[in-house]
Amino acid sequence: MQAKDLVQLAEQFGSPLYVYDAAKIQSQYKRLTNAFSKVDKLRINYAMKALSNVAILQLLRECGSCLDAVSIQEVQLGLHAGYAPDQIFFTPNGVSLEEIEEVSAMGVQINIDNLSILEQFGAKHPNVPVCIRINPHVMAGGNANISVGHIDSKFGISVHQLPHLVRIVENTKMHIVGIHMHTGSDILDIEVFLYAAEILFDAARSFKELEFLDFGSGFKVPYKKDDIETDIEELGRKLSKRFNAFCKEYGKDLTLIFEPGKFLVSEAGHFLAKVNVVKQTTSTVFAGIDSGFNHLIRPMFYGSQHCIENISNPKGKERFYSVVGYICETDTFANNRRISEIKESDVLCFKNAGAYCFSMASNYNSRYKPAEVLWLNGEGHLIRAQESFEDLLKNQIPLPVTATVS
Prior knowledge:
Pathway: Amino-acid biosynthesis; L-lysine biosynthesis via DAP pathway; L-lysine from DL-2,6-diaminopimelate: step 1/1. It comes from Flavobacterium cellulosilyticum. By secondary structure, the chain is an alpha/beta fold. The protein folds into two domains: about 35-265, TIM Barrel, CATH 3.20.20; about 270-385, Lyase, Ornithine Decarboxylase, Chain A, domain 1. Helices cover about 30% and strands about 25% of the residues. The chain contains twelve helices and 18 strands. The longest helix is centred in the middle third of the chain and has 19 residues, at about 230-250.
């Protein structure tokens, strides 16, 4: 996918605009499955919270992927996209017993991450197979907000509560068919991941009916040229060998599950925005674009780095710019970033915009959410239309004409 293609898409569909490269998603999926080709039973559950557009779900279904959902609405989207109930895992946090029961009744595999709900569900539905999310107390991830396996995390049942967990299972006679962990995102140190895996293996020995082990994901992708990333191939070699040895010890060929989100879709995504104004101040040159953190919140929320290119002038002389949005508060995408010379109406491209970008977009400042396009077989396909004023008004109920304000 070339810069000229992106410029043409911005002209065709308008800006701001999200564009996803289907070929990159497909190649990332193949890369992950190839890395674990030595495992007999491998299942990939795409973490759809990263990007839940139905067309993306359909594309991944064609690759052979299953789904990891964190809400009943995501489950419903997965079913709408053509996934069978047994191709969807439900891994929520802090949801009600009623929501878990409703999803379970759909035939979806549920994953429970707290003792209270586990005991209540087991007492009412002892014959329903359940997966348990373990907190391994391993700090992994590139930011405190995306590190979810440490001791202060709200996610999972502490590995130190294993005796209590086993007692609940024995008392309710429920069937535990899987053990799950997720330590965090942007994991670089493979040894930390392997250490957490050993904790999962130890916990698995307490359950005799297991069918699978779910190791989560969190693999880091490169955000800039020569950036470091998780060595999936090395992890594949080391974890496959250890997993196969554990299966032999356990006496059963278990399924190895991953639930990648960012790894599959991040690099496929491009966010395009037009420059409204180039503003020189006493110390800074601002490039103000026709978007803001309402469309791409990660730089403000996580301090994430997205490579920004001027695709209207890709070979121009580089200058330093602070790229900012149009939201009426601090709204900064990049400070003093070297970018090819920018003029008003140029189109800027934010890379790595496939994961947790559109899915976290909002209507703040009453702005419309942008359109989404899938680049497939050399052609742009509109997979979500830009919102309109009618969309902003949808579900709003004005006061009756006869109402008065006292």
